[in-house]
Design goal:
The complex is a heterodimer of chains A (301) and B (795).
Chain A (H helix, E strand, L loop, with lengths): L1 E16 L1 E6 L10 E11 L4 E6 L5 E7 L3 E14 L12 H10 L22 H10 L6 H15 L1 E2 L10 H7 L1 E2 L1 H14 L4 E8 L17 E7 L6 E5 L4 E2 L4 E7 L2 H4 L2 E6 L3 E12 L11
Parallel strand pairs in A: 7-8
Antiparallel strand pairs in A: 1-6, 1-15, 2-5, 2-14, 3-6, 4-5, 9-10, 9-13, 10-11, 11-12
Chain B lengths: L35 H12 L2 H18 L2 E3 L8 E3 L7 E4 H25 L4 H4 L5 H6 L20 E8 L5 E7 L6 H21 L6 H13 L7 E5 L8 H11 L2 E3 L4 E4 L2 E6 L2 E10 L22 H6 L4 E3 L16 H9 L10 E3 L3 H9 L4 E5 L15 H5 L6 H8 L3 E5 L5 E6 L2 E16 L2 E4 L5 E3 L15 E3 L1 E4 L27 H34 L5 H12 L11 H13 L7 H14 L9 H24 L4 H25 L8 H8 L3 H8 L5 H10 L7 H13 L5 E2 L2 E2 L1 H14 L8 H22 L2
Helix pairs in contact in B: 2-6, 3-10, 14-15, 14-16, 14-18, 14-19, 16-17, 17-18, 19-23, 19-25, 23-24, 24-25
Classes of the chains: A alpha+beta (301), B alpha+beta (795).
Chain lengths: 301, 795
Amino acid sequence: MLYDVRLRIRQVYTPPATAGRYLLRLMPADLPGAQRLVTGILEGEPAPQERWDGRDFFGNAVAEVAYKAAQAELGFSVRARVQRLEAAVPQAPAPLLAALGDEITASLSLAPDSPHHFTGRSVRVAAFAEASDYARAALPADATSLSAVQAIGEAIHRDFRFMPGATTVETPVEQVFTLRAGVCQDFSHFMIACLRGIGVPAGYVSGFLRTIPPTGQTRLEGSDAMHAWVRAWCGQAIGWVEYDPTNAVFARGDHIVVAYGRDYSDAAPTVGAVRSAGTQATSHAVDVVPVEAPAAPRNGG
Amino acid sequence: MKRETAAAPSLPLLAHYRAPWNSPDELLDSRGAIRPVWRAFVDDLSRLPAEEVSLRFARGDQYLRDAGVFYRRYGDEEAADRAWPLSHIPVLIAEEEWTAITQALTQRAELLEAIAADLYGEAHLVRDGILPPALIAASPEWLRPLVGVTPHAGHFLSFLAFEIGRGPDGAWWVLGDRTQAPAGAGFALENRLATTHVFSDLQARASVRPLDDFFRAFREALFAQRPDGNGAAAILSPGPMADTYSEHAYIARHLGLLLLEGEDLAIENGRVHVRTVDGLNPIGLLWRRLDASFADPLELNEHSQIGTPGLVSALRNGSVAMVNALGVGVLESRALMAFMPRVCEAVRGEALKMPNIATWWCGQKAERDYVLANAERMMFAPALSTGLPFEAAAQRSLANVLGEGGRDLAGALARRGGGIVAQEAVQLSTTPAYAGGQLEPRPINLRVFLARTQAGWIAMPGGYARIGRAGQADVVSMQQGGAVADVWVIGPAAGAPPAPPSVSATPVARSRPGSLPSRAADNLFWLGRYVERAESLMRLKRAYHVRLAETGDSQLPVLLHLENFLTFRRAFLDAAPTGISGVLAAALTSAGRVRDRFSVDGWLALNDVTHSARALATLPPGHETAHTLNHLLREIAGFFGLVHENMMRTTGWRFMGTGRSLERAMQIASLLGEYTQPGVPDGALDVAIEVGDSAMAHRRLFAMEVNRTNVLDLLAFDLRNPRALLSLLADFKEQVAALPHAVEDGAMSPLLRAAHQIHGDLAVESAQSVTTSALFKVWGDLAAFSELLSDTYFR
């Protein structure tokens, strides 16, 4: 499926910030075999005095921009055309949960997709006893890595309420569990804590959802802003799968990946260091629209 | 080397010297005889009477106090500077043995460099199964943003410290590697200077290897690392709250480096700059003394308040050299020591020349089983701990580290072994310390510093040993009440001519005196303001308490008026933040942030004033308080005298002077505004004259007739009176004219114009014409001027 993605972020500073430097992870990713970035432009408004485009450890495209002069208002916008290939349902047999540990140990790598980065504590998420108990209670008998992911994701979708405003970007994952409410970032963080607690390497994905659903289907939650979901490592044969606990679906054709990380801190759309004593207000606007292209190739089922 | 009991030699000094039977002693060999390297020293020491020894020790301690050598102890309720705990007896090591130590540690330095390059590069050691990926990936010091970044100079490590100890078999063992930001080199130099004050004669006879060459070579190597040989070289410090800040200030002064904090730095066009009063100046080298994760809140620890946004990006550009590179803290992970023998074989094809303390990472089953079977002779710690063994007495047992009771340690270890490391508890050797006229054995370990120069790694010959408490052979820590001693490396033949000092072919580069960092200027400006403000408050309070002592009536109109004036200024209570003690505390904070630019005498004098002022809050009002205030005013005059006499006439000195002169003019302006209003009580004008410090002049000129016009003439307009407001403003104007860029291209800066304006507004008035509101306006204009000055120089 071919999509046109439009994103606009606006930040207002009161009083104006004297100088600022930002990391932006806003551009849809180019993922061989899964997602192709046909074209994309990221702009700052006003234009920054300095800009550097590169990649971070996890391979995400990062733009670093800096402003020297005082800014009362900043805007960042992305216009991109993305071809998302429907991810295949895993065909290889998933290992039993109990066998996953040996597969992790056997992986002798520190490459960005190595499971070792995703097992322990990261900046915002660590396994905690209540999450591990919750995860174990949700598991089917003889759970495999893959069935565990699905079962836990469905449990979260069942037990947690989607409630914008109940949490902020800084709400700790333990508190999300107490509230049983939040938004996509919270559900993803909690699911990561659950999976790490039962030995499944798990990370964070930020990205976009298509805004208007295909005819006859309901609109997905989280499509009016940047979205977040979970990726989990299900063993050497299957590798990484992506699951969206906010909508209780595997992320296949409607999810457009922007950035991967261990948690929000690694994949944050904007990180800013601003010399300012005042307050900051941020607003997002997102449009993800399928392009009526006659020859949008699809991949398997 | 084991012995039943050490036979005490016949010297009285050693009459009670009993070395432990199960570990070697530095002074005595296994038969109880004094080792050759110590013999001359002990003989000399024996000849000194006990009183003479005490005098000599006191001389060394006095030196340390005068030099301002302090350290901070963690966990103190009030983080206060503590006296440097020097154990005056040096540790003596023969050069031959030292050479072997140096060679072994040079091998280790190169090995650590290779591991850093691999972990931030191709990670072959992980791929080949030599280092476990789980251990590295879990380390908070393995900094992912730095993976793939090759340091500008081509290497990760340039300055290292190793903790080594002598084990029961007499051989040296590595106890810990310090790679992040090794502390103590400056203290080593101070140890040496202090010990020289104690034993100059003994040292001269003993052919002790000097430390200076090491510092000279390292300084040269630092400057040589700057990209294109450009930019200033600086120490990057976490700031005055760090436990070794006084060392940062000392070594910055000693090596002629700028002392900077994260907020001093600004990244522009991919380069690191220091914000100075002259604008941004490029930085070529940062000797980092701050933990890496705090260095950049944008790419590293997002909560760091002491970092510089964009610093990682500048390093990626290769536009600045950093010693040591960000990310090398991962090498301090304690569990890594378990793998060092194998890594050395794999990387260098040879064995470690000095073993490290036996270590087992419990993330592996075989190791776990061994550890469980031998748990009683192990020390346990979190696997990624970067603390040193022998340092923390807590967290030693397995149950302790696991945080669980003794129920199922094996099960807990199986689940969480990846987070646990075990190390063999080794008894350390002992060395003599002086106590009660006798020598007695104390456990020691050495801290050995290595620096990378163009000619390869060099070691600082001695300088630093850590001495434990008696009877605690396995804990050596200053934090636990231990001490520090100098280490003398003794050359082969006493009296051999010393090697000529190495002379560099290239002239030594100096940072230009003009580039004063903005933050330093800011602190010096405010230091001048605060101390002057404290002085002014002391004068006002003295006037109050002298009158109270004379009359005993606090309800007297002139006293109520004065009390009101002080209350309005929120300064009536001395302990309030705006009272005398509070203002002095603020002055001390400002001074503490510019220790490298400030004479030690000045620092100590300011400490003394601040300390004395604390008494004010507890004294009864009246005579005693007035008396103490007199004393304080003399102390503060002494402080300004020291600063005036001893501080270099640099830009920093000008900012301090400008702050002082601005504050003094503000104080006089507000005093005159308040005290020349109609309806002030009887005697109020006398208070103004006394506080304005012009009582003598007034009596002479006006034969005791006190009225508004006379007082204004004396305190505002008489140019012969240096404390008259107009004189102060003229002086202030001159100070501002001497600040950087006050006149450029023949034009006055807005700041200098503002100073002229304030002076001119008053200069056209006279004692008869000036209104009270005009006086308050001077005060207000000066306050606005202070803001303008901040915007001009400190942003």
